Amino acid sequence: MPCSLRAILLRDLVLGVLGVSAFLVHLGADLWAVSQYVLSGCYLWAALVLSLLGVASVALQVFSWIWLRADPAGLHAAPRSVRCLALLHLLQLGFLYRCLQGLQQGLLVWQQETPSQFDLAYADFLSLDISMLRLFETFLERTPQLTLVLAIVLQSGRAEYYQWVGICTAFLGISWALLDYHRALRTCLPAKPVLGLGSSVIYFLWNLLLLWPRVLAVALFSALFPRYVALHFLGLWLVLLFWVWLQGTDFMPDPHSEWLYRATVATILYFSWFNVAEGHTRGRATIHLAFLLSDSALMAVTWVTQGAWLPGGVPLQVLLPLGGLSFLLGLALRLVYYRWLHPSYPWEPDRVDGTPAPRPLQYYELPRNRRMDHLARNFFPQGDEAAVPWPGEANGVL
């Protein structure tokens, strides 16, 4: 195996181990917080944390199970029995099983002197599903948990040590999941280079800086008006769900499970941008950014008219400028990234006499994650119509 390929495989293996470890650490931090809330008599807070954990876990298991059932028969090496897989997902261990399966496949490929194309493609197949599930877990559980913890801290006026652990792990985990998802998308298109260190750092930072004001806005609203935050989320979520439906998503294998995907995407859009359909991404991203900015501004006006201090004594005059500065800095880094650091160029196949060269038959026999392929072609631009690697599947232009 070439040294460069071995180094890349080792890096991906180490990142996979770190990802599983971060998932377990964050889960432990949430359970630790629940136990502390129960011991201090804050049963409502404990119930809310457990509810968010339960909803996110069930959604992850459903996604994982539907994808496993939709995968081609005989794809997964040494498959467990259907009953065993069903039991793992019923016990809320399906996502962890997928992570361990991905690590096992990655270790197998790294140990081989000359890994086969099938083993490499299968390792990519597993990692793409894991990346997508991690993104879903991030916005179904980590981001709402972070908002809840910040609201509790702002309302009480102090932060316990276990709350600081949850806040730090959540912020880092959210930005890392967005970066990991973006890097995973690039592997779906042959000519897309991986993100370099500088591009990865800027991408990580602008996601973190743009997410913080939104989370702060919702957390402040929750601390000031705890009885209305659920109504606020439901109202915006329905609007975003309608918008996702209008874009005609086609990600899941059947129409019924597609609504689960749309509901999850609407939850992601409540906090951050997520592209789901082909077309001009820039226009939709601008509309979404303006929508969230307007909503956050309306909440800020509500805070100012209701009073300048939170129940815990935290001045809004300090928090609001910090949120605005973070937004402007994140927006500037986002523009810098897409203007100068985004490694993007159209995919062009090898040509013979001016026409696309036919692919070998073995290429079509390799496992391809069509779910993530579809999302990647929605997000990244490609060349002319003749350069489309799979007929009938066009891509939007960024």
Order of helices and strands: HHHHHHHHHHHEEHH
Count the beta strands: 2
Widest sheet: strand ordering: 1-2
Strand-residue proportion = under 5%
Please state the CA-atom Rg, rounded to the nearest Å.
22 Å
Description of the molecule:
With 398 residues, this protein is mainly alpha-helical. The chain has 2 domains: 1-194, no CATH class; 197-344, no CATH class. The protein is built from 13 helices and 2 strands; from the N terminus they run H-H-H-H-H-H-H-H-H-H-H-E-E-H-H. A two-stranded antiparallel ribbon has the order 1-2. A hairpin with a 2-residue loop joins strand 1 (351-352) and strand 2 (355-356). Helix 5 runs antiparallel to helix 6 (161-186). This is XK-related protein. One of its GO terms (biological process) is phosphatidylserine exposure on apoptotic cell surface.
